[in-house]
Known about the structure:
Blueprint (H helix, E strand, L loop, with lengths): L2 H9 L19 H14 L7 E7 L5 E7 L2 E3 L2 E7 L3 H8 L2 E8 L4 E11 L2 H8 L4 H9 L9 H14 L11 E15 L7 E8 L2 E7 L2
Antiparallel strand pairs: 1-2, 1-5, 3-4, 4-7, 5-6, 6-7, 7-8, 8-9
Helix pairs in contact: 5-6
GO biological process, one term: pyridoxine biosynthetic process
Keywords: Flavoprotein, FMN, Oxidoreductase, Pyridoxine biosynthesis
Pathway: Cofactor metabolism; pyridoxal 5'-phosphate salvage; pyridoxal 5'-phosphate from pyridoxine 5'-phosphate: step 1/1; Cofactor metabolism; pyridoxal 5'-phosphate salvage; pyridoxal 5'-phosphate from pyridoxamine 5'-phosphate: step 1/1
Amino acid sequence: MSDSETLHTIAHLRREYTRGGLRRKDLPDDPIALFEQWLSQACEAKLPDPTAMTVATVDEEGQPWQRIVLLKHFDAQGMVFYTNLGSRKALQLAHNPRISLHFPWHFLERQVLVLGEVEKLSPLEVLKYFHSRPRDSQIGAWVSKQSSRISARGILEGKFLELKQKFQQGEIPLPSFWGGYRVKFHTVEFWQGGEHRLHDRFLYQRDHDGWKIDRLAP
Length: 218
């Protein structure tokens, strides 16, 4: 297929969204209740990586960056993920703690957008989660200086084997450069696909009385 044929094809790709609507009367007062329901349904539908979310941060020059990480915990206090504290996203969050999360559950014709600010998890929270991970994943955390330039994959594989031998016995220590964040959210938007592009969008925004809910035009 030529470039022009590809462009013509993607320009005309479309389908109807027919899986159902979202009505104001059915919304809970707190967004975390609806998020929990939707995530549970995404898991029940056996979607690939239902906890995968796009994490957006901004660098010191105002350039947005995005990457996909896995949600590891959520409650009314926030949404939790873990990372190398020397990574690009961690350095950007140190400069600007504001963050955006996006959950793309396309098969269910749903999206969730989360806005908030991060706080670092306590060492105890990080340690508890780190030791719940598979042993090879714990070693993997030691291997990679995330976002740094490397000349070949073999460097990573060699370091992994070296550390696997080193940590053959006993508990693997928590790296000082590995941690996690809690996203203290103040805005959550739920998007449900609708027929004729009349999608249902509801915006939750935190205020002094709890949560304000608005319907948005599609």
